[in-house]
Amino acid sequence: MDEKMKHLREIYKSETSFSEKERHAVMSKAKHESANKSGGPLLPFKIAIPLVATLIIAFIIFASNDGGPLFQPTTGSPGEEQDEQETITEEESSIEGYVMKSEDDRILIVEPRNKDTSSYTAVWYSDYDSDIEIGQKVKAWHSEQEDSEPPHAVPEHIQVVESDASSENTTLTEHEALKRAIDATDLNDFSIPVVRKLLYIEQRDEWEIKVEDAYNDHYSLLRVEDTSEFSVSSLSPTDTIEDDQIPEPNIEELLTEFENAYDRLVETDDEQRLVNFDTVEEIHDDFSNIMSDEIIDYYLDTYVHEEGDGLYIIPTGMEVFIDLEQDYEVNEVSDNEYHVIQEVDYEFTDHIELTYIIEYQDENWIVQDVLHDPIDE
């Protein structure tokens, strides 16, 4: 292009036959090419694009090597720790239970014992989060444990389980109520303390809590008032009852009263309204000397629907009771606990072993619990 422009310039100088318009076109072309060659308006774009790309690459290399604020090291980063915890908690926990003891920089987590089993699981954990407190319900994960009784382990993660509110009107949480009960109980007398009952009784505005020893019949049964003030009363722990204070239970009379109470509950008029009770409080008052609050609450939840004009029956199945005219077995578990057992095979039930747990509470024998265990044919 340079040689061509020189040639044109020479022609322009030597030739006089060009018109003024032609000379103007040639000179404009020459100026345009000269401007581009000498670094005209296109030069900044040609230089800026590779310069910006080079700066970006250099910044990435510097930041990743130096661990700058935008590029944190991957090892031990908060994001990785969170991912590890999420991975752990997606797996089934090693244990879910209550923190029952704290000693020598370790905590004892014990699964609650439900009404259908006498088994339990417990683990001592060391190197745990210091925010974990006595009475809290938690889930814990561990991969290895020492062969001891109970086993000892170092947790990979411990997660507090937020308990559902027992009632909108409760002042205490489940954690606070259990902690008060534990604080009021000398757990040094318990080898492995197990929560058997943790129940809020709305009608009495108090918590009823039973803590058992996993290895023997020793237990503590407490009432915790649902107030901001610390108030705990003992019902009838076994270590405070003298043998001569406990009368023999009249099994047949108690079981007859128990079945009659149910019959009174489910008796209705033509509109399915209860005929013997107008309020839930009346049911509690009638049944409290015969059965535990747990059974009363079960009956209310299962059979009773409250409306503005009274209580109505919920259409559902019927309860199964021990037939006192048939053979049954009575086992004395302790001075204040008996088990009444019978195999039952009714038309609408499977073949089951029916067990009534009879306990002495508040100077009275009551049906504390009823167990239904299927029997394999």
Secondary structure layout:
Elements: H1 2-14, H2 20-37, H3 43-66, H4 78-90, E1 95-103, E2 106-110, E3 122-126, E4 137-141, E5 145-146, E6 152-153, E7 157-160, H5 174-183, E8 193-201, E9 206-213, E10 219-225, E11 232-234, H6 251-266, H7 280-287, H8 293-303, E12 304-307, E13 310-313, E14 329-334, E15 337-344, E16 352-361, E17 364-374
Parallel strand pairs: 3-6
Antiparallel strand pairs: 1-2, 1-4, 2-3, 4-7, 5-6, 8-9, 9-10, 10-11, 12-13, 14-15, 15-16, 16-17
Report what the structure shows.
The protein is an alpha+beta fold and 377 residues long. Helix content is 30%, strand content 27%. It contains eight helices and 17 strands. It has helices at residues 2-14, 20-37, 43-66, 78-90, 174-183, 251-266, 280-287, 293-303, and strands spanning 95-103, 106-110, 122-126, 137-141, 145-146, 152-153, 157-160, 193-201, 206-213, 219-225, 232-234, 304-307, 310-313, 329-334, 337-344, 352-361, 364-374. A seven-stranded mixed β-sheet has the order 5-6-3-2-1-4-7, covered by helices on one side. Strands 8-9-10-11 form a four-stranded antiparallel β-sheet, with helices on one face. It has a four-stranded antiparallel β-sheet with strand order 14-15-16-17. Helix 1 runs antiparallel to helix 2 (20-37). It is extended and about 125 Å long. The N and C termini lie far apart (106 Å).
